[in-house]
Amino acid sequence: MSAGRRVYVKIPASTANLGPGFDSLGMALNLYAWIEMAIADKTTIRLYGEQMEGIPTDKSNLVYKVAQQVFEAAGVDHPELDIAMYSDIPLTRGLGSSASAIVGALVAANAVIGRPLSDDRLFQMASALEKHPDNVGASLFGGIIAAFWDGTRAEQLRIEPEDRLEVLVAIPQFQLATEKARHVLPTSIAMQDAVFNVGHSSLLVAALSLGRYDMIRHAMRDALHQPYRAPLIPGMSDILEHAVDHGALGVALSGAGPTLLALVDGEQLDAAGKAQLERFLLDTLQGEGIAAETLWLRPCLQGAQVLTGFDPLCTLIENINAHHPHRTVRIMG
Ligand code: HSE
Fold first, then answer.
1. CA 92 remoteness from chain centre
2. Which residues does a 6 A CB cutoff place in the pocket of ligand 1?
3. pLDDT on residue 52
4. Is 11 helix (H, G, I), strand (E, B) or coil?
5. Ligand 1, from 127, 130, 132, 236: best to mutate by most atoms within 8 Å of Cβ?
6. Residues 266, 172 share a domain
7. Containing structural domain, residue 291
8. Do 107 and 137 fall within a single domain?
9. Which of 54-58, 204-208, 295-299 has the lowest mean pLDDT?
10. pTM
11. Ligand 1 atom nearest residue 185's Cα
12. Residue 191 gets which letter from DSSP?
């Protein structure tokens, strides 16, 4: 173990559920957060970027606390840390920002102490922290993840998204806490709704695994959470109903929302078609008085990775700008 090791981790955003796969399907997206971590004499936490507003810089910081869990699990004692964080992932919009922080903290802390914990162990810890494995599984492993967490153990399998799969997200300007979006869900559901979701989620997994993207429009429907969340997001019901008529393969609420996500076959939909779909999402939200921003994303095939080549004499943001100079993400506050 090298006590002086300084590590840099890049973590992808994620979308959870993909419609019917409530708490069980996730996909990593090419929008990122970065965490720098080293053992220090005194804890310092530096946050860069607008997405970090309001995040604590003392020992109540989530990344700091999760890192301590790694040290405890590994049987080492390292209470003081130097941490820096930067993220392009908008907070509380349904794009897995908290999962990216948890996964980043686990991977960084494990790397700082020479990686004694396996990826599976980190996945178990992440799932227990989030209470569902969809976002954390995608951020940790990349690609599309089918998973469950039964309260004790999580299991996952990865599905490879094809190159032609593109993702349009419409990110409303308002924030929606996951807790609030889970609070509106019923505590029990009718058998027919459970059967509906088992069928649709199964078909969606098969369609994604087999590259049968023509089936996504039939499969990407949900009766467990989206109907209950729709009143929190004006325009959502219209978008869910009509986006496939505007070129989407399928459409869903991204995680607990409020972001809406449309899957697109980039080989089938040309630039004019993409512009039309984008316009439909924005116009529908705007018609309800909701300002939103769209981003064209892609599935991210790589999960959280420990980076090499960052210069410890530079700040985290200087390193990110040097290695990723063309990031154009500007999410409204
Ligand atoms: N599966 C979760 C939900 C994702 O829909 O509430 C949000 O964390």
1. 11
2. 16-17, 22-23, 132, 134-135, 178, 182, 225, 255-256
3. 81
4. strand
5. 132
6. yes
7. 165-297
8. yes
9. 54-58
10. 0.94
11. 6
12. H
Indicate if 10 and 153 belong to the same structural domain. Answer: yes
On the question of a cis peptide bond just before residue 299, with omega within 30 degrees of 0, the verdict is: no
Q: Which of ligand 1's atoms lies nearest the C-alpha of 134?
A: 1
pLDDT band at 330 (very low <50, low <70, confident <90, very high): low
Residue 1 — very low, low, confident or very high, per pLDDT cuts 50/70/90? very low
Domain of 127: which CATH number?
3.30.230.10
Confidence band, pLDDT 50/70/90 cuts, at residue 333: very low
Collapsing DSSP states into helix, strand and coil, what is residue 193? helix
User: Please, which residues bridge with residue 15 across strands?
Assistant: 27
Closest to 181 measured CA to CA, from 240, 128, 224, 235: 224
Taken in order 203, 204, 208, 214, is the CA torsion positive or negative? positive
Q: Is 228 exposed, middle or buried (0-12, 13-18, 19+ CB in 10 A)?
A: middle
Question: What is the Cα gyration radius of the chain?
Answer: 20
Residue 185 belongs to a domain with what CATH number? Answer: 3.30.70.890
Q: Measured in angstroms, how far is the CA atom of residue 212 from the centroid of ligand 1?
A: 25
Q: Provide the number of structural domains found in the chain.
A: 2
What span, in angstroms and rounded, lies between the C-alpha atoms of 212 and 251? 16
* Protein residue whose Cα sits closest to atom 1 of ligand 1: 23
Q: Note whether residue 1 is domain-resident.
A: no
Task: Quick: pLDDT tens for 116-146.
Answer: 999 999 999 999 999 999 999 999 999 999 9
